[in-house]
Write a structure and sequence with these properties.
Blueprint (H helix, E strand, L loop, with lengths): L6 E7 L2 E7 L11 E3 L6 E3 L16 E4 L2 E7 L2 E16 L2 E13 L3 H32 L36 H7 L2 H10 L4 H8 L16 H6 L9 H7 L15 H14 L3 E3 L21 H4 L12 H6 L9 E13 L10 H4 L12 H4 L8 E12 L23 E9 L8 E8 L6 E2 L10 E2 L3 H19 L1 E6 L8 H17 L7 E5 L2 H4 L9 H14 L2 E4 L2 E4 L3 E6 L5 H21 L13 H19 L6 H6 L4 H19 L2 H12 L5 H9 L9 H16 L7 E10 L11 E9 L2 E8 L4 E9 L3 E8 L16 E7 L6 E5 H5 L4 H6 L5 E6 L3 H4 L5 E6 L6 H5 L7 H19 L14 E3 L5 H7 L2 H14 L1
Parallel strand pairs: 13-20, 16-17, 16-20, 25-30
Antiparallel strand pairs: 1-2, 1-5, 2-3, 3-4, 6-7, 7-8, 8-9, 9-10, 10-11, 11-12, 12-13, 13-18, 14-15, 18-19, 21-22, 22-23, 23-24, 24-27, 25-26, 26-29, 27-28
Length: 959
């Protein structure tokens, strides 16, 4: 993108943090730097005449970065995330595509912290540069033709620019190392884990360095100018620098806030997620967020952030401070997913003699000199009948319903599904000349578009359907209406089991697809639904049976076609899309999508005049390893491990070693689902702007996260409406209001430590109703009706049920109401017996009935009533300010305001229903009293030592 600086100079000046855009070689610098203001993290411009600039900054107080990811504020501290390491993984239209390999997190709240962090960053960059020089010298002496890194990409470098390549532990294309082999060789993710864990100093040393304020990995290569190479030898390593940065609090307000103890973990998460994970990609010139078919008119001179698709623009929220400033030179969109590239050669007249089998293999990019320009590679020993192509895969993960495996399942209220990924397979010539056709084939994957959950505490968890059939179909329709507008016709490929636990959601998926076709809007394309039971068809490791699916869908894929661009104009546009899913949309999905991609590639090359079935190379390792790398990348981002069944994707063979490797991956996923994912999910939602930093306070309370994609306010409104229809049978009653509150699961108790659940509380002019609601099925499971004339007292006050976390012990936030009453013959308690006796959702969905509400108490003789002791209904206010509500701009009454409104309304109506005692006028006993329901001191006594110890241990592990 013309005008966007390739580098930035970040330094700490006398009055603030300076971000100075630097132009590429031969260009002038951008005149207006940007200042991140201390204290409140406000971003303002600095005029040209200010003296603070990069030229006057000491070398140890400035470093060069390749772009700004953004700025975030948590626990009263602001951090700038800048790219300090990058690696070129592909080139598109002659422009380099980079993956982020390292980032620096620079605190912006105090000058002292900023200077210390920047100095630490400089030290780390210089050390990494020195180590890279030494490593390259060693590699040159031992190997003259090193294979490329196993990123699945062809490293076609920008001429004149140095490649930032991680050359540690190279792996040949198609090679697959087992977990045990990685551990013993200390390579790969498992080997790295073992090396750190069993090292006397490695684990804690890396833990200190990964506190996130500026570190880079030792093996990370960073682009630098000649003067940086000279400076890299001047400074020694300061091991205490990271500790000083973390512990520096001189300019910050005193007193930690709730959740502030999690800030170091958040910084580590940011450093790993944005940098070490190598899952974020960017380009200065190419819009990675849009496929060829989705690109609008020529946008050569339009800044990338203006044309980027918000669906795949991952740092849009973090860039808001700079967007508000209006300095477009700092707005660099990044995309999460995968970008990989391979070159290959095909022959119009392939040789038939076995001695010439190397005619194709010799041209594979795996043996081409890494980093050589595409012009050189295109001319290596090609016969007149041969032609060299480049295949590129770009997978774009959606920011909608983004997150991790068991915490983001199914669909949300707006019709967005979890693990939604658009994968574009591009076929082009090596030089991307406009006179040659460019082919683009797009597929999508995404979770089954229904409300469902699965527990992470099982290796084979049972899916649980949630919410009513109406709510599911409403979200289902939104999803496919939007997809139809974006892609046209849709072929749904469902890979879950027809029998067993997966069939629970598979059957509902098919039913909703059939209903959608019957009720689809005018002009909308019908859904083509294909259910292929992958596990049944491929039982016994016979993954080649996926060809059966291709036999079924081949004609459909051919009719869908691909997008073709020639001379910069789209000549033909893909007229539909395949949407593939399994349960996770990872392993089975990637195997099938790679098969669909190969099928389309053969069709495209046939149009170019090449018969792939006649080629000498039938292994197609260049294709298989590229798709396997794509599957691994998407799997790591959703399930924290590489994809299972990857051995088949790479080699088209399946054996026991692949099964053993998959077992290790399953156990790793199981551990991450239980321990790591909750905090990581909170951080992801925070970075995307779905929640505020209050999410970490909520996480500290129960080590869990909430789903911002499911609107609790809408669910609560629906619950109140449903409860009103079911519980209030007498049409003569005047409905006053309804609220959702917390109440002990056991009736007639206020005890701390007992399980609490969210209930619906209704109030009419003559009675109050306590409705226990099944939030999974949107049904009333039971309700209790109490005549207002039977109410004898109302207590409002502090209601603390646990002191495990600071939020739970806050006396201002934890308040409630206790209504005391004398049971009478008109009081009723009823339960929905069908809901309680059936499996979750099964009979309800089959019958479509609301269940049978049967009376289990009430209607007692008057003589018996007088002997019944008084009973209590305990209600506790929900927290008014949550991370989700604040992010959505929802403003609610405070907790004490909530209970005051409800209590005074109950008191008014009770007095209206109770006539004054005879001969005493209007003198009545005071109903409303204000005193502690459960005080902080009582709650502390009730919170057992084992409860506190359990939470402490869980926090040590989870946080």
């Amino acid at each position: 993108m013309p005008g966007l600086a390739r580098k930035l100079l970040i330094c700490a000046a006398v009055d603030g943090l300076i971000i100075q855009p630097l132009a590429t070689k031969g260009q002038t610098r951008t005149p207006n730097p940007v200042k991140v203001k201390y204290g409140d993290a406000a971003v303002t411009s600095i005029s040209r005449d200010q003296t603070a600039s990069s030229d006057s900054t000491p070398p140890n107080l400035s470093f060069e970065a390749f772009g700004i990811i953004g700025l975030f504020t948590v626990a009263r501290l602001s951090y700038l995330v800048s790219i300090t390491g990058r690696q070129q993984v592909a080139q598109i239209r002659g422009h380099p595509i980079y993956v982020v390999t390292d980032v620096a997190l620079t605190p912006c709240t105090s000058q002292n912290e900023a200077e210390t962090a920047i100095s630490h960053t400089v030290s780390k960059l210089q050390r990494a540069s020195a180590e890279k020089i030494a490593e390259e010298a060693s590699d040159t002496a031992s190997e003259t033709d090193a294979p490329p890194a196993a990123t699945g990409a062809e490293d076609i470098d920008d001429p004149g620019a140095q490649s930032d390549r991680d050359v540690s532990q190279p792996k040949l294309p198609g090679e697959q190392r087992g977990i045990a082999q990685d551990v013993f060789k200390k390579s790969g993710s498992y080997g790295s884990f073992a090396q750190r864990w069993f090292s006397n100093k490695g684990w804690m040393a890396n833990r200190r360095q990964s506190l996130g304020l500026s570190g880079v990995g030792a093996a990370t290569a960073v682009e630098r100018d000649d003067d940086e190479e000279d400076r890299s030898k001047k400074e020694d390593d300061d091991r205490e620098l990271s500790r000083i940065v973390v512990e520096e609090n001189a300019d910050t307000p005193p007193g930690p806030t709730t959740g502030e103890s999690l800030t170091p973990k958040l910084l580590r998460m940011a450093h790993i997620w944005f940098g070490a994970s190598k899952s974020f990609f960017f380009s200065y010139d190419v819009d990675l967020t849009r496929s060829i078919a989705n690109r609008t008119a020529a946008t050569t001179h339009v800044p990338l952030h203006r044309v980027a698709d918000p669906m795949f623009f991952w740092n849009q929220n973090l860039l808001k401070p700079f967007t508000n400033l209006g300095d477009e030179s700092l707005l660099l969109p990044i995309m999460q997913g995968f970008v990989g590239q391979r070159s290959f050669v095909v022959d119009r007249h392939p040789p038939q003699v076995e001695s010439q089998l190397d005619s194709v293999e010799m041209h594979d990019m795996a043996v081409s000199p890494p980093g050589s320009p595409p012009q050189e590679r295109a001319s290596i020993d090609l016969r007149p009948s041969e032609k060299k192509y480049v295949i590129t895969i770009v997978s774009r993960r959606s920011v909608k319903r983004a997150g991790l495996r068991y915490l983001r399942r199914g669909i949300d209220d707006e019709g967005f599904t979890a693990n939604s990924v658009e994968t574009e397979q591009i076929l082009s010539t090596v030089s991307w000349e406009p006179s040659s056709k460019i082919y683009s084939f797009v597929q999508v994957r995404g979770s089954i578009p229904l409300f469902f959950t699965q527990s992470p505490y099982s290796l084979k968890p049972i899916p649980v359907l949630k919410h009513s059939p109406e709510a599911n179909f409403n979200a289902f329709s939104k999803h496919f209406n939007r997809m139809g507008e974006s892609y046209g016709s849709m072929q749904l490929v469902n890979l879950v089991e027809r029998h067993g636990v997966e069939a629970i959601v598979g059957n509902e998926y098919q039913k909703n697809a059939e209903k959608y076709n019957q009720e689809r809007p005018e002009g909308a394309e019908p859904l083509a639904f294909e259910w292929f039971d992958f596990h049944s068809a491929c039982r016994g490791m016979k993954f080649e049976n996926v060809s059966q699916l291709l036999d079924t869908l081949g004609n459909k894929i051919e009719k869908t076609g691909s997008t073709v661009e020639l001379d910069g104009q789209v000549e033909q546009k893909q007229n539909g899309v395949l949407r593939t899913n399994c349960m996770d949309c990872l392993d089975r999905t990637n195997v099938c999508q790679s098969s669909f991609g190969k099928f389309m590639l053969d069709l495209q090359l046939k149009e170019e005049g090449f018969d792939m079935s006649a080629q000498v190379d039938q292994m197609n390792s260049w294709f298989n390893t590229l798709w396997a790398d794509n599957g691994d990348a998407i799997s790591k981002q959703y399930a924290s491990t590489a994809a299972m069944k990857g051995d088949y994707t790479r080699t088209r063979k399946r054996d026991y070693r692949g099964m053993v490797n998959d077992l290790g991956l399953s156990l790793t996923r199981f551990y991450n689902g239980m321990v790591n994912d909750h905090f990581s999910q909170a951080a992801i939602d925070f970075f995307l702007g779905n929640v505020t930093s209050l999410v970490f306070e909520e996480f500290e309370a129960n080590m869990m996260t909430k789903d911002p994609g499911v609107s609790m306010s809408k669910m609560r409104e629906l619950a109140i409406e449903t409860s009103q229809k079911i519980a209030i049978e007498n049409a003569q009653e005047d409905f006053i209001g309804g609220w959702t509150l917390l109440s002990p699961h056991a009736s007639n108790t206020v005890k701390a430590g007992s399980p609490f659940e969210e209930v619906v509380f209704l109030l009419t002019d003559v009675a109050l109703y306590l409705c226990r609601f099944d939030w999974n099925l949107d049904k009333v499971s039971s309700f209790e009706r109490v005549e207002l004339s039977h109410v004898t007292g109302i207590t409002v006050g502090t209601y603390i049920t646990s002191t495990i976390s600071p939020a739970q012990a806050d006396e201002k936030k934890n308040v409630g109401i206790v209504v005391t009453y004398e049971p009478g013959k008109t009081d009723v308690k009823r339960t929905n017996t069908r809901s309680l006796s059936s499996l979750p959702g099964e009979q309800e969905r089959k019958s479509g009935s609301g269940g049978i509400l049967s009376s289990i108490t009430g209607n007692k003789p008057a003589a018996e009533e007088k002997q019944v002791a008084r009973k209590k209904i305990a209600l506790k206010a929900l927290y008014s300010h949550t991370a989700i509500s604040e992010a959505q701009g929802v403003r609610r009454l405070t907790e004490i305001e909530q209970v005051n409104v409800i209590a005074t309304e109950i008191e008014r109506l009770v007095l209206a229903n109770q006539p004054p005692p005879p001969d005493t006028g209007d003198d009545r006993k005071e109903l409303l009293s204000r005193e502690d329901i459960i005080s902080l001191e009582e709650a502390r006594k009730s919170t057992g030592f084992l409860d506190q110890l359990g939470h402490t241990i869980k926090k040590l592990v989870w946080a």
